[in-house]
Amino acid sequence: MSYFKFITKFNGYKKIKYNTVHKILKLICINKLNKLLNIIILILIYRKNKIINYNNQIIRRVWSLMSSFKLKVLLTGAAAVGKTSLVQRFIKNRFQANYKLTVGVDILTKDVEFRAGEIATLSIWDIGGQQRFEFIRSTFYKGAAGALLVFDLTREQTYAETRKWLTEIRQFAGESIPFVFIGNKADLIEDVGLVIDRDEARSFAENEGSIYIETSAKTGINVDEAFTELTKRIIDSRM
Ligand SMILES: Nc1nc2c(ncn2[C@@H]2O[C@H](COP(=O)(O)OP(=O)(O)OP(=O)(O)O)[C@@H](O)[C@H]2O)c(=O)[nH]1
Ligand SMILES: [Mg+2]
Known about the structure:
239 residues; alpha/beta; Rossmann fold; 2 domains; six-stranded mixed β-sheet; 8 helices; 19% strand; binds guanosine-5'-triphosphate; binds magnesium ion
């Protein structure tokens, strides 16, 4: 091999080697850069979400401090299912065994801490479920922010009527009104037995965008939870 040929070959080899090394280095750099960019983007997204969440919290706090969370909520359902008893348990923490039907509507107010530090003032419209008040009922629904739709766990008929009640609420208070589906008098199940299908009640509620809760105004079980859950759902539907 002549000297000239050797030099050309050596330079060519060096060139190939240089190109390959250069390409590999470039690839590593690009990959690293990509990774670095991805990390930066992730940090930015995380920080942005944190800022958004933080801002939401501040807005909610200010809003609740200004008492803007004034919500009209309905207590509806057939007669004698326990609507008045639920609100009495919730507000006064008491229970009366004798039945006194609600004439038209009773309105009571209570502040609810639906999340730590977040308070809403509920104006609870306890609506008489007797047939005789049907003609006037729809006028009470206007402007409602949410509803507790109650049936009696010991009377199948009150459960069967709930669709009618839901249609009525939606017709007069708005199609998208948040509600919570309540099976009340849970304390009596032990004696009377279960007259409804719990899974069906649960899936009915879920299909209608709600949840199903069993309460007892007598023992107080799940009563606070029902009102708090409704309040959360109302606030979340507005955010
Ligand atoms: N054992 C038991 N009895 C209950 C419960 N809730 C209500 N009751 C009784 O059921 C009856 C009817 O209760 P109300 O709260 O007056 O029913 P309502 O739905 O307000 O009835 P209307 O005002 O007519 O629509 C009363 O005798 C209550 O004591 C409960 O959780 N357990
Ligand atoms: Mg009542």
